[in-house]
Amino acid sequence: MSTEPDDIVARITEIVAAELGVPAEGLAPETDLRGIEGADSVRLLRVVAKVEQVWDVELDDADVFGVSSVADLSAVVASALQVKA
Amino acid sequence: MTAPHTSAPLDAPTPMGVSAAPAAPELPWAVLEDYRCFGCSPHNPHGIALAFTEHPEGLQTSFKLGRSYESYPGVVHGGLLGVVCDETMGNLIVVRTGLVAFTVSLRLRYLSPVGVGTAYTCVARLGSDDPGGPLTTATAEILDADGTTAVTATATYRNVPFGTARERIALSATEAGRLDQALTATAGSQTAQEMA
To answer: Where does the record place the Thioesterase domain (chain B) (predicted)?
Structure first.
């Protein structure tokens, strides 16, 4: 799995689209995750769980519950990958 | 495992889907006629008697937990789900290496409530560790009948040769000898499969 920042954003966008059932084309890095139609806490937690599986990382809950956009979540993943390296 | 689970309480969990599943690995502990592991022994009336089968990516167990294992009404206690994940990951390591695996850390993420009296499957997979290292990581997930993930787990285990683990396990000399043989056979079987 790529760890390049742009690739992380792209893959997380795909995951968000799949878990929330929305077209990926309609999502931007700055899109408010909680503002997406159909988003709720359980579905967003599924996004987090999928992200953890894809990159084999454990994200801190404090970080996870603080993110509001794809870009935020991508930054958390990038930080976790740096710690892991 | 040969002994039937005859002394389980009425509310005991029900291992599911054994007949439809692929091969069931022989757990080394089966040579101990009276082992009482809360997670996987068929001899512990208070346990959950998990039975494992091979999965294309690791090891799996199917289960249905009753109200004795409840937290909020109708919801399985999260700690029990940790037991299920830990058992599946730990036994995966044992049947793949023939080493005793002591849990070092276990982390769960609960995505949705797991219902009592409902069938679920736990699948465990090995991490991408260097073979022969002192630690092994594994992941597990609990899936409902539709394949939707309800719980994810990650854990790290310390791999311990039986000679070392022996000092921390309460076994008679006879039992220790039998278990040592079973673990050695498990390791040998795995090596043969890898070479084939």
So the answer is: 74-126
Strands B119-126 and B58-64, bridge-based pairing: antiparallel
Nearest to B149 among A49, A56, A58 (CB): A49
pLDDT single digits (tens) B137-177: 999 999 999 999 999 999 999 988 888 888 888 888 899 99
* DSSP string covering B38-54: TTT-TT-TTS----EEE
What is the CATH T-level fold of the domain A5-84, as seen in this structure?
Answer: 1.10.1200
Q: Which residues of A touch B141 (CB under 8 A)?
A: 53
A-chain residues near B112 (CB < 8 A) = 42
Give strand pairing partners of B135: B158
- What is the nearest CA distance from A10 to chain B, expressed in angstroms? 23
CB contact under 8 A, A46 and B154: no
